[in-house]
């Protein structure tokens, strides 16, 4: 069924009896051409583009839980392409362009909202760094604008611009950045992939790889062995645990990242805003809740919940830029497991095992990458060559020293 305003009207008048399930509940077959492990945003997008753009068939997505239960449904929904380094910027700009046409492409309302993102500046040195970043973005075809404190005051009158420990001295805006309803992205890709003939198999955990003579010929799962010509791992925070089953040790650590949402408030925050003197980012959801987050908890963990010191730190960051946040009540908080790479940038590459591919290391930033990651991974799986925007995302950069250290933090995963 094609979703449209007309369909909504028709169903409203006929008792909503025509809505079918958005995708089939497929049972695993004995073998596929492509098995994608992980039904998060990246795995589902990969399956969709593999079928739609690269005309491949016999594709399955294996998800150990349910679609949308991982980080794709836990993030703070921010999309942007305000990256500095050549290895990253074209990839994230490609992703933003895909977001711009995504709802039409998938025939699904993912609530893509280009409400803009503003990174606040608090020191002169930070202004220099943001001017450099803005210029790099413009050189790569993205949009960027440096705003003065006066311009920021007009748009965000409630911000504590002067009477603050870290006065606001301007900001770098990307007006095409914004937010997207995260779980709708998973559902939209799942439905569109299903329509292309992809089998989406939930409650099917991959428990091992079957590797013969250096070639991966399939996966062991909680629902039996499934053969595959190509196996594509795409499990975000579970990357290290999964690839250990193929005896691979990854340049990735897993850390908890928490997020928070306040009670519903009247419209207050028109766009996404980030604090430049600490780590705090915030937007307002269409239901009115302030959705915000900050740093990782800072220790290795696979538990999808965090601890109180980070709650305090995040709230301090929020209070530093808009003290009226202190009067809002917190509605919910939750955690997700981040696949933090050594240089803060992702990996989309073949492994040393024939037929086994890897996508991971997304750190805090994988949601905005979802469309491009899916497209680039599908390109790699279909052609065995990296997509032009993802050539820097190889494993070999850790051996050759060609790091893509966007934050300049060195090889310390919890700082990226
Ligand atoms: C609190 C929080 C806030 C964030 N905010 C942002 C943001 O604002 N902007 C941004 O760009 N990014 C953000 N991110 C990061 C982003 O959400 C992730 O980088 C991205 O979602 C990871 O890709 P995914 O969607 O494929 O992951 P997931 O949705 O986690 O998908 C991986 C899937 O693999 C499954 N799986 C694991 N092991 C197995 C197995 N053995 N067999 C089968 N299936 C398996 C899991 O169940 C899971 O469903 C945030 C993350 C968190 C946690």
UniProtKB/TrEMBL annotation:
Protein name as catalogued: Sarcosine oxidase, beta subunit
Record key words, sorted: Cytoplasm, Nucleotide-binding, Oxidoreductase
UniProt cross-references to SUPFAM superfamilies, sorted A to Z: FAD-linked reductases, C-terminal domain, FAD/NAD(P)-binding domain
UniProt keyword annotation of Cytoplasm present: yes
GO MF terms held by the record: nucleotide binding; sarcosine oxidase activity
Gene Ontology terms: cellular component: cytoplasm
GO BP term (any one): tetrahydrofolate metabolic process
InterPro entries named among the record's database cross-references: FAD-dep_OxRdtase, FAD/NAD-bd_sf, SoxB
Record domain FAD dependent oxidoreductase: where: 33-379
Keyword Endoplasmic reticulum set for record: no
EC number: 1.5.3.1
Lineage summary: Bacteria, Pseudomonadati, Pseudomonadota, Alphaproteobacteria, Rhodobacterales
Subcellular location: Cytoplasm
Predominant subcellular localization, coarse grouping: cytoplasm
